[in-house]
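[job 0412] stage=fold_complex status=start
inputs:
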Amino acid sequence: MNPGTLAQVLVQGLAYGGVYALLAMGLTLMYAVSRALNIAHGNFLALCMYLLLTLSTSLRLDPYVSVFITVPVFFGLGLLFYRYFYHPLQKAELLLSFQAMIALVFILTEGTYMIWGGNAVQVPSAVQLAHVRVGSMQISLPLVLAAGAAIVVAAVLYLMLKRTDLGHQIRAIAQRPELARLIGINVVRVEMLVFGMAFVLVAIAASFVVPFWTVTPEMGFSFALFAFIVLVVGGMGNFLGALAGGFLVGVATAFSQFFLGGSLGSAIPYVIFVLVLIFKPKGLMGTM
Amino acid sequence: MKQRVFKPNVLFPAGLIAALAILPHFLPIYWMSIVIYTLWISYICVTWNILASSGTYSLMHMLFVGGGAYLSTFLFKHFGISPWLGMLGGAAMGAVLSVAIGYLCFRYNLPTFAFFVITMAFSFIGMFVVQSIKIFGGNEGMYIPIRSTDVWNFAFVGKLPYYYIILAMVIGAMVCAFLISRSKTGLYLRAIGAEPRVAAAMGVDVMGYKLRALAISAALSSLAGTFWAQYSGFIDPVSMLSPTTMMIVLLFVIVGGAGTTWGPLVATVILVPLGEYLRGKITGPSFAGISTMLWAVVILILIFSLKKGILPWIEERMRNRQRSARST
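[job 0412] stage=fold_complex status=done
writing structure:
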């Protein structure tokens, strides 16, 4: 086993983990402020990736450039999603709103099928085949970019949560929703913005994952399931936990796929999950 | 405790059973399979609901359904043991497995949705493990060998016997659920579902009763697995064990009204045939997914307009009507 291969696997794990972390951070924010479990999150990721495909085929835009188009679009989509989909359901039973999300999963999956077809496609990028040279090792550039982007975005979000007014309001709502309302925080507005931010994270993740991932309509759902595992591993509603959990699950997946391969390798993240559950049932970092 | 207004008396179930018993004589063969599928789904829904009355929503029941299917098929294929015995073995296995997993989860007061996600993960582990084991057929699944068509081998000619078996199973599960909900256990479970901390303070053994409900519901649901294996003659990991299947099953329970006795049945009877009808009506390559999409849209419309399960909605309407009748 040469160190080059191991490093390649590690970076691959960090890149996957970064994507999971971006999704899980969005999920965790939505869960923290409005107890929403958006199981359709992965399908929005797939939708965004198909959007990047269309932008690439029609306007010849590189996915790293298209991010400037998809981010505002998805921010708006997040606001609309909250205002017209989740908000009306907030007074209904929790399970019912979850079920509505599952119905949405069906609609989005079938919708992407009908518009873009079921074939696996790849979105080309200028730096797709580029490598970074570290000593004697060659590491694929898109993987490095994905891992780096996740860390940068997480840092920005963390500072936002800790330093800005909006961040304080978000944390206030996460801790004591009723009190937050009483001291005059516009809860609906903050929740709406949080949904917008979660969708922005999806758009960023899509742009960085698309150069090394083939896109199919079903992949969205499996991504969302993974992000949920990350959510629980990190501690429901814990922002840093989502980041750490994402990288942990991503790296573990990459190594187990490499050494064990096949179905048994796919089971490893879930085994980690069970171990975390047995030894640290509140997640790695507890709740926010 | 909310007063139940929708209380079918003895006549209603008796009439329903009689109608279902003679139904096959009026149905074309194509609809027979849809009806059997509908009954199968409602069976799983009813067994799932036994646990749901305690406010515990599991996504791992497919693990028991699939486990039952795989165990009985494995024993039948390699040792020639009757699927009926395998079915009992599957039930025992489901009960033990569910108690082990339940114990892990119930030790701490995890939020409802944490349990949801955790059980989903367990279901995935089961699926991946079965996929990677050669003797269970791996990804390709297993065909159930046809030795001879007799009762002992759980193999029959035509669909009619299967129809009556699954009908009997649904009735049995309903009776079970009904008896439990009437018993002290059922009362405790509802108390736990309504307010777990208060229930614990009043001296209810929360963990014990939850585990009991889980074991009963897991054992019962595993019977559905063996039935499906024998009926369809083929099982594979994804359709039998995947939590995605479970989510579809859940759709009916929740749209019908989680925790109610009749809700799951009402929703399945409406929604499964609707889905099949749409699939049959709208065909052609360009419309491949549109039936599923329309079906999901119908569900969304139901959820958005009712804001609760179908049955709770009907109950509320009836209660309001009674109230207004009383006031005038």
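[job 0412] summary: Chain A touches chain B through 44 residues (CB under 8 Å).
[job 0412] exit 0
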